Amino acid sequence: MFSYIIGIVLKLRSKEPVIAVVGHLVKDEIVSPNGEMKVSLGGTAYSIAALEAIAEMGRILPVCRVGRDIEPMIRAAFGHNQRLDLAAMKFTSKPNVVNRLVYGSDGARAEQNSAIAPPLELDGIDRRIDSVLLNFISGRDVKLRDLKAFRAEYRGLIYCDYHSLSLGHDRNLRRYYRLHPRYKEYIATADMVQMNLAELKSIYKIPIFDMSAVAKACCHLHETGVKVVIITAGTNGVMVSESKTGRFYHIPAIHIRRQVDPTGCGDTLGAAFLYNYLRTADLIGSLEIANQFAAAKATFSGLEGFAGLGNIIRQIGPPVKAIALKNLDRTPA
């Protein structure tokens, strides 16, 4: 499966980043605090759309399975970009999973799925690509044994958005935060892991605004072997911990005049960071830019706004510089 990737990669120039985006693509029903609903592609669609808007070179290889009922939406959203190989999308006759997201006035989100998609296969991904962006949308996107086998053979960079590994399903397929029983094994397969504060709290109980506690939790995650931990905190910006240097940075959030929809901000941040990091190897500079792109995503709902992302970036201003936080107690609990 997906063996066509080999032929594509061999034609690429070595300087062009090649990124496989692995994770379920869903149909989102986004309900705003005022009760308005917007239907959009969701899940890894945000990662793909962000890479498509940001990447100036290279190739984007989505590895996902989607229902035929949303094929027209996919063709309309992604069918025009030659750097994006849609052949990686396996279409099925079954209806696509619907993900209903209901936002409250306090920013809290309730999430419910119409079904659980079967895991994706990694066997056909060419081991010579630069990076795999693994975004856990369902929490069951990839079987752990398959991921371990892939990691044993793959020498490129695995960037993992922990996302729905932190969520379980109740009998009505509503999502709830829980401690994943094998979270350490999943994280250990990645070079870099991203999660938000709620996802971090599902693993390690911390006060939300306590930077020292976040730093200690990151050290706890570094014990799995993951080299870089990125923690997104919404209006409090983003934090990053690097095991090699022991450094911990905070990048304040960029002020925007009006937040329209936070859905996809984390996906946009991860995509923007990974692309720029692959090109520059600049951890902090890439995250500063990614923080800027995440702020831009909050100004629109769905995927349509990605077409004008450059204009939005110019309007919100330059990236905010990272602050190195020192003298934090980072001894893991």
Give a structural overview:
By secondary structure, this protein is an alpha/beta fold. The N terminus is likely disordered. A hairpin with a 5-residue loop joins strand 10 and strand 11. Helices cover 30% and strands 24% of the residues. The longest helix is centred in the last third of the chain and has 16 residues. Helix 2 packs across helix 8 and helix 9 crosses helix 10. It is globular and about 55 Å long. The protein has a 10-stranded mixed β-sheet, sandwiched between helices. Strands 3-2-6-7 form a 4-stranded mixed β-sheet. The protein has one domain: Ribokinase (UDP-N-acetylmuramoyl-L-alanine:D-glutamate ligase, 3-Layer(aba) Sandwich), CATH 3.40.1190.
| Counted beta strands | 16
Note the overall shape: globular
CATH topology: UDP-N-acetylmuramoyl-L-alanine:D-glutamate ligase
SS content category: alpha/beta
Whole-number count of domains: 1
Report helical residue fraction: 25-40%
In terms of DSSP E residues, the strand content is 15-25%
Name the strands of the widest sheet in spatial order. 5-4-1-8-9-12-13-14-15-16
List keywords for this structure.
about 30% helix; single chain; UDP-N-acetylmuramoyl-L-alanine:D-glutamate ligase; disordered N terminus; about 325 residues; alpha/beta; four-stranded mixed beta sheet
Q: What's the gist of this structure?
A:
By secondary structure, the protein is of the alpha/beta class. It has ten helices and 16 strands.
List the helices and strands and how they pair.
Blueprint: H1 4-10, E1 18-22, E2 25-31, E3 37-43, H2 44-54, E4 59-67, H3 71-78, E5 89-92, E6 98-103, E7 109-113, E8 131-135, H4 144-153, E9 157-161, E10 167-169, E11 175-177, H5 183-188, E12 192-196, H6 197-203, H7 211-222, E13 228-232, E14 238-242, E15 248-251, H8 265-280, H9 283-297, H10 309-316, E16 323-324
Parallel strand pairs: 1-4, 1-8, 2-6, 4-5, 8-9, 9-12, 12-13
Antiparallel strand pairs: 2-3, 6-7, 10-11, 13-14, 14-15, 15-16
